[in-house]
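Saturday, quiet lab. Running sequence design on the structure tokens for the scaffold JK sent over.
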């Protein structure tokens, strides 16, 4: 069975996923973005993030990625996750059941943008 694929903006992610993304990318997001051409022919960049059940592409530009880290007090002035940041114990449902019109099962996540 393939994973559910979701393309979503960072600000629309559930808080528990944001926390897990921070743990996955403790040195920030900008150096980890992937680029692709969406179905309208526009070049798009996104941060890949994978859970046990969902493959996310989190839409953001390099500048947005840098600004997110700069504005987030969980990151220090050098853009690194603070040593005292702790991932809260969240339910493991990974926000299943949330509404998302960007998700489709068998199609590529890149087609859903």
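Result came back. Writing it out in full:
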């Amino acid at each position: 069975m393939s994973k559910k694929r979701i393309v979503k903006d960072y600000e629309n992610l559930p808080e528990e996923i944001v926390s897990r993304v921070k743990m996955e990318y403790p040195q920030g997001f900008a150096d980890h973005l992937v680029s692709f051409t969406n179905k309208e022919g526009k070049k798009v960049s996104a941060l890949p993030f994978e859970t046990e059940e969902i493959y996310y592409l989190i839409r953001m530009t390099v500048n947005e990625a840098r600004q997110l880290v700069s504005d987030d007090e969980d990151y220090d002035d050098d853009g690194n996750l603070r040593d005292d940041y702790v991932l809260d114990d969240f339910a493991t449902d990974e926000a299943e059941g949330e509404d998302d019109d960007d998700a489709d099962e068998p199609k590529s996540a890149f087609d859903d943008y």
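Notes for JK: Strands lie at 4-9, 34-37, 43-50, 54-59. The radius of gyration is 14 Å. Ask whether to fix the surface positions before the next round.
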